[in-house]
Every structure is written in structure tokens, then in C-alpha cells.
Amino acid sequence: MSDISLADFTPALFRPHLGEEFVFERREGGMARMKLVEITTRPGSEGRPFALLFVLHDQPPLANALPKLIRDGFEPCEIYFSRVTSPRRQANDPTGVYYEAVFG
After folding, report:
1. Residue 66 located in a structural domain
2. In the chain, which end has fewer C-beta atoms inside a 10 angstrom radius, N or C?
3. Which residues, 6 or more positions from 19, have their beta carbon under 8 angstroms from its beta carbon?
4. Where would I find the DUF6916 domain in this sequence (predicted)?
């Protein structure tokens, strides 16, 4: 079986991984470990577009560069993240830094 590529990403692919930690290689060096906390889809759609929400704890924020996903079963690929606010989540986790990746 070949590794999963960016083109193969779907919400269904990530649902079993909710709550798991994902590792991203920082362009400036080092790794960022972020937990997948939410998958959002458009109502009535199970494919694209969709968004993944990750939270980062106790690490420096991501730089303005594309971190590379490093995970068994996945091809290494750069992911574009936007730093976002999530008032609902931040009310319960004020120290978390939230990042969203949108796939269209």
C-alpha cells in the first residue's frame, strides 16, 4: 500500500485520528506537535471543502512558513496553516494556540 498523498485528503480519512497528535517539521528547524481537535465540512458535503483544526501547546508558534507533515502512512507534504481563534475551545483551553488547514 502506498502512502497517502495530499490529493487524497478527505474528512473521512482524518476522523479516526481526532484527538491524535500530528508531527510537522518546521522549515526553521525542529518539530511542532499539534493535536487534531476538529474536522469541519460544509453541510451536505462529505468531501471537499473541509477544514482541520489543530491545537499547539507548550511550543513556539509556527513561523510564516509551510510546515511539513511527518506521519507514518502519509507522504511528507507541506500544509498551509492559518492561525485562528476558537472562542468555544479557548474558553476551556486558554493556553492553546489554534491553527486551521483548509482543503478545497
Report:
1. yes
2. N
3. 35, 36, 37
4. 9-103
